[in-house]
């Protein structure tokens, strides 16, 4: 029997999303999510798609990403889809920071693990979780290839003009300080899916991709290659996010240290975990923010306005970087669901050929769709991302050639 299944683990700072896919038959066999890892009220939600069964939910303490993966393995085993299955060809892992070294999906060995570990200081919320996921999966199935698919890989095509910060070259190079970019698997998948929606090849189109989830980033994709993206050395730069500030004057940090008396670690926590939407209004969920705005909440409205202002600046910037834009694609939790965010982000940009049709924008759905008015110069689209499918495809392409 040929092994044709791939398990994908997308480990975030406090969650694991997973999918089990059959790459030969092209179907999803199971999917799920473990949330609030490290808290007493962790929650596991598992859907056995192949078995046609109902979603099972379980709440209780899950201490870390290792325990989360073991719980996932138990759920899969209950449906006869356990990790011991001979049909499993590989486990694909999202790894957020791959530095400059990893431009392709990579089979994990001890050297690769050491490199991912070395990059922890520049992805402190993500790489430790990714590492724990890989180590646990390896312990459960030492014989299986574990494949790392890096968020940074798609951005390694950025020209030096976009990838370098304008700081002393020797200092920057000594400490590998440059712009790496993240969410690359999503930007790659969504830019290709957008070309397909337009009936064109990726080489023929220039696309601005707006990945708006808890973490958020924009990218400028020229003929299928990334030429700029909003995240930098770490996933902190760029857009306003759920808990992260995005762009600030770097001198804010000196000021908070010297005048505010804060330590570097305190400032790190402030900018990564207590800023963005949550810092501005106390909520990081766009649904809650919209609800509060409808009730006349001034702080929620200001948070929304700051979020939109930054987003609009990046649309304009990447329009200029690309020169010609064929499409703007909204994706991830906010981009796929929040029609008000999409409408506000392109409001007033008619002279750039950008607009949304109110009726089309209000339609909900899981399929890629256009929301710009018929005949618009630039297509505006909602293109659901599927990082897990993309990771599975890349993983199987690497190991499944038997
Ligand atoms: N129906 C909705 N309307 C508005 N925003 C939504 C909706 N559903 C999800 N979101 C937003 O999407 C976010 C999560 O996006 P997601 O892409 O799943 O993030 P991540 O992968 O970074 O955890 C939530 O925090 C919330 O702000
Ligand atoms: C890189 C990053 O920000 O990822 P996430 O959106 O999953 O936090
Ligand atoms: Mg995400």
TrEMBL record:
Any one cellular-component term (Gene Ontology): cytoplasm
Organism superkingdom: Bacteria
Positions with a binding annotation for ATP: 17, 211-215, 285-287, 333-337
InterPro entries: Ac/propionate_kinase, Aliphatic_acid_kin_short-chain, Aliphatic_acid_kinase_CS, ATPase_NBD
Reaction(s) catalysed by this chain's protein: acetate + ATP = acetyl phosphate + ADP
Site (Transition state stabilizer): 183, 244
Compartments, as annotated in UniProt: Cytoplasm
Residues at the catalytic site: 151 (proton donor/acceptor)
Cited NCBIfam families: ackA (TIGR00016)
Family matches, as PANTHER family: ACETATE KINASE, ACETATE KINASE-RELATED
HAMAP family hit by this protein: Acetate_kinase
Function: Catalyzes the formation of acetyl phosphate from acetate and ATP. Can also catalyze the reverse reaction.
Protein name: Acetate kinase
Organism of provenance: Streptomyces griseoruber
Gene name of this polypeptide: ackA
